[in-house]
Design goal:
single chain; 505 residues; alpha+beta; Glucose Oxidase, domain 3; FAD/NAD(P)-binding domain; 2 domains; seven-stranded antiparallel β-sheet; 13 helices; binds flavin-adenine dinucleotide
């Protein structure tokens, strides 16, 4: 990402880390395996904005088609689809202690997509102790089909566009340092994710006129490609708790875990620990829909390796890592991660140059909304967590906020509102849920890039099918909704081409 004036100010390099899966199966191969559909309002609001066929009832049918829940207690989740998912519940005492503490505060209810305020142990993309992903679940079973060819290590630079009739004819792709031109018999489907799908469109002259012209790229179609970048900003902090709550692992425990995993595909290494115990809260108490999602991570005392790894992966400044390490010398750490559910801040993707293989510029713009509503949600979340620490349940385990200072926030006393605001702008990050940069919307929507059938407006022969088409980010982790977009997109393609064939006959 590009350095920002509103976020990630105190992280190493002054940027948030921005990983994505550059691999067959994309980010589903490297993600945290939490499987969350999102709630009714997410999809009904897409439909209300003119996206016919994307209401909750309609998308539910798509979910049920591809979900392959492997358990006996799948509830309303699909059982016969390609994507294996399972239920999972962390077995260490901290899981139930947290449930009791949230109950004491009156926040604990069973979560469902229809009644989305509450807590649950989310499904996970794990089957028999092993990660599932979109490549394994959807491509592996059909890899020998005669009409499927997969090119690995292949990088698409741009679309081949016939400007005379505004039709996409194929793609230009680099394989083994050779640039090939591949023609499409019917149409091109672009699924390069929320950063690269807009990049490929803009490389091809499809994008904001003023931006393309500033680089000297011929404009084929003037669309707001790359805008409306949405993502879930997060803020994490630590609570020290008595060592009896979170068991510290000895080297021998670690060996046992490894044995258990390799021999039986079970034990701690076969799950996601406490991460899928998540909560949804409306911090303003003004709706039956959440504005905050909460995640929890438990770390036993003296787990310096894990702390350093966390710090490395998220660019944390040394001062913060040292505070966590210091606290972990005497006690266990419970990390609470607060996530802004429906962000008001939006960012954008721009091209860096006319070289189609150059990395695009990413401007996430977290906490840039005019009224600071996103920051406010996190502040409310911090207040809620402080109440959590004061519950009878957690006080008996000596729960206490881990204090820290940051170089950019030295003028504020720890735990004042000003300190937290400063801290959020400095070390808050995101949960890698980038979406929205090829926004779906009807023709009347000036910000729309694709129509509700995922065809790019104003040009024939190309659809976008990935997270970039979301008009607004869903309320929760984005992998499941994006797989649903893939399933729905496949149905739209089949409907359209079968209809063409019928008309020809
Ligand atoms: C570290 C991490 C943890 C996450 N944890 C979770 C989680 O626990 N639960 C959850 O629901 N979500 C999670 N997410 C988010 C979720 O995985 C993503 O939202 C989702 O996978 C995005 O899907 P996509 O198809 O839109 O894009 P991607 O998954 O990014 O797929 C894009 C694909 O296009 C390919 N590509 C890009 N450019 C080109 C090009 N020019 N030529 C050819 N190929 C190209 C890429 O290699 C990739 O295979 C996480 C993401 C990350 C990065």
């Amino acid at each position: 990402m590009e350095p920002s004036e509103t976020c990630c100010l105190g992280l190493k390099g002054n940027v948030c880390s921005y990983p994505r899966g550059k691999v067959l199966g994309g980010s589903s191969v490297i993600n945290a395996m939490l499987y969350v559909r999102g709630n009714t309002r997410d999809y009904n609001s897409w439909a209300e904005a003119g996206n016919v066929g994307w209401d909750y009832e309609s998308v539910l049918k798509q979910y049920e088609k591809f979900e392959g829940c492997q358990d006996s207690n799948c509830g309303l989740y699909g059982k016969n689809g390609e994507l294996e998912i399972t239920t999972y519940k962390y077995q260490e005492p901290i899981r139930d202690i947290l449930e009791d503490a949230y109950k004491e505060l009156g926040y604990y209810r069973e979560y469902s997509e229809e009644k989305p305020l509450g807590f649950w142990d989310s499904f996970v993309t794990i089957n028999k102790g092993t990660r599932t992903n979109t490549a394994k679940s959807f491509i592996e079973p059909i890899k020998d089909r005669k009409n499927l060819y997969v090119a690995l290590n292949a990088e698409v630079s741009q679309l081949i566009v016939d400007k005379s009739d505004k039709t996409v004819k194929g793609v230009e792709v680099k394989i083994n340092e050779k640039i090939l031109k591949l023609n499409a018999k019917k149409e091109v489907i672009l699924s390069a994710g929320a950063i690269n799908s807009p990049q490929i469109l803009m490389n091809s002259g499809i994008g904001p006129k003023e931006h393309l012209e500033s680089l000297g790229i011929d404009v084929v179609t003037n669309l707001r490609v790359g805008e409306n970048l949405q993502d879930h900003a997060i803020f994490s902090f630590a609570i020290s708790v008595d060592n009896s709550v979170i068991k510290a692992k000895t080297d021998l425990d670690a060996l046992d875990d490894i044995y258990q995993y390799f021999m039986h595909r079970s034990g701690p290494l076969s799950g996601v620990e406490l991460l899928n115990f998540m909560g949804y809260v409306n911090t303003k108490n003004d709706s039956i829909f959440p504005d905050l999602q909460l995640f929890h991570t438990a770390m036993g005392a003296d787990n310096v390796d894990a702390l350093e790894e966390m710090a490395r992966a998220t660019n944390l400044p040394d001062e913060l890592t040292e505070a966590f390490k210091e606290s972990s010398k005497h006690s266990s750490n419970l990390f609470i991660t607060l996530q802004v559910m429906n962000p008001k801040s939006t960012g954008k993707i721009l091209l860096r140059s006319t070289d189609p293989f150059d990395k695009p510029k990413i401007f996430p713009n977290y906490f840039s909304d005019e009224n600071n509503e996103d920051l406010e949600v996190l502040l409310n979340g911090i207040k809620l967590s402080k109440k959590l620490i004061q519950t009878k349940t957690l006080t008996q385990y000596k729960a206490k906020l881990v204090e820290y200072t940051l170089p950019n926030c030295k003028e504020y006393d720890f735990d004042t509102d000003e300190f937290w605001k400063c801290s959020v702008r400095n070390v808050a990050s995101h949960l890698y849920h980038q979406v929205g940069t090829c926004k779906m919307g009807p023709e009347r929507d000036p910000a729309a890039v694709v129509d509700p059938r995922l065809r790019v407006h104003g040009i024939k022969g190309v659809r976008v099918i990935d997270g970039s088409i979301m008009p607004t980010v869903t309320s929760g982790n984005t992998n499941a909704p994006i797989i649903m977009i893939g399933e729905k997109g496949a149905e739209l393609i089949k409907e359209d081409w079968l209809q063409n064939i019928h008309e020809e006959l």
